[in-house]
Amino acid sequence: MNRVESIKEPTARHRSNAGFSLIELLVVVAVILIIAAIAIPNYVQSKMRANEASAVQSLRNIVTAELVYSTTYGIGFTNGAGLAKLSGSGVAPDQNNAGLIDEVLASGIKQGYNINYTPLTTDAQGNTATYSVTADPISASTGQRHFYADQTCVIRSNSAVPAGPNDLPI
Length: 170
Fold this sequence. Notes:
The protein has one domain (20-158). The protein has 5 helices and 5 strands. The protein has helices at residues 3-6, 12-15, 22-73, 82-86, 103-106; strands at 109-110, 113-122, 128-137, 146-150, 156-158.
């Protein structure tokens, strides 16, 4: 036998073993899809919980800023433009530009929640004596709980309807 004849080209049978079969590729894709089906709902739930934690922290920042505002300026809490008055650059703070919260929070929308400030009662001089702040999810995918706080600095929540002063504290 000639040496050249002993070196043969690969047959069709040997070439088909060089790659992956369609069944093997389908199994790998199926495993990836199963892992994604488990992971995505957990991601959505963790994102909603993070949004809720951000809403609670935002309310905490606002009630603390209101307390500082009232103590600093001695005119009660901020009026109807409360969040805007609490915001500002902080370079030359005054009662209309206190610089106590950031501009994102003062816009009233943060991390999928609408944040609303409402003055409730005024004293004899017309200064705001009581107020409420609510944080409600923009949609069901951004959060499930509603939050409420007021001048008592207690944050309350309700999972069914917008929270109010009679809901349980968190």
